[in-house]
Amino acid sequence: MDANPTNSARYLSLLGVPDLEPLTSPFDPGYDPATVESHLGQSAHLMSTLKVSMASWIVARESATRQKVAAAQAHGVPTVTGGGPFEIAVAQDALDEYLDLCSDLGFDRIECGEGFTDLTRNPDEIVDAARERGLEVQFELGKKHEGSFDSNAVDELVAQGNVWLSAGACELIIEARESAAGVGLFDSEGEFNRDFATRFVAEFGFDLVAFEAPNKASQFALMEHFGRNVRLCNVRLEELLRVEIFRRGLHSDAFQRDNLRPRRSAPVTR
Predict the structure, then answer these.
(1) How far is 226 from 200, CA to CA, in rounded Å?
(2) Residue 240 belongs to a domain with what CATH number?
(3) 13 occurs within a structural domain
(4) 182, 188, 241: which is closest to 216 by C-alpha?
(5) Is residue 216 a part of any domain in this protein?
(6) Share of the chain above pLDDT 90, in %
(7) 33 close to 70: Cβ distance less than 8 angstroms
(8) Secondary structure letter of residue 177 according to DSSP
(9) pLDDT per residue over 155-184, tens digit each?
């Protein structure tokens, strides 16, 4: 808890809500700088990173992208680019130029992946090139267009994740796209595969793996299964506070669950 807690923080402590580190990485799909700055002013303390997603930031006015990145830095929130621009850069033999651009704009991290392409450069080479420019690397596990995972795919992704961690990646991301249906851990009806999700956490731990959770159903399913310590990403900025009240057991559905409901350390007296 902060040395000088606010009234809200003192009340949350009274309820038994734990003081959590930022565990959610929301994404900006192309909002205007004022909107992003407003969300940062409200919720930066809840953000592990801010993903400036897709390729929107490359075609937007560059001054606007710089404004958003600078605003995140001012609030102490690291920024990360989405994996799509990385894949296109590699496929078009422009990785070095892409890394130069990310560094010049002030990003802290890039996301790498093979969601819709196949890499032609090895992980060690990519991570080293990023580090030379002051950039961290996270790697996304899973294809975007090959449906839900099966057990063989999970085995292969675990092996791939270990290769990228050995190369120096700081985090692994489990693919769910924008639908959380018919992709990754979610079947065509959006049903969540708990066993496969548990396998990733068993292999990598909560500190190194984050799950894309682009909608309410996927967000709630992951937190109901794992509890409040699961890392989530690709959460829309306007959904961040809903995720965080659920994580803290302050949502009606979460309050009913033993692994999310806050517990007071002392009995209530009148």
Answers:
(1) 12
(2) 3.20.20.70
(3) no
(4) 241
(5) yes
(6) 91
(7) no
(8) T
(9) 999 999 999 999 999 999 999 988 898 999
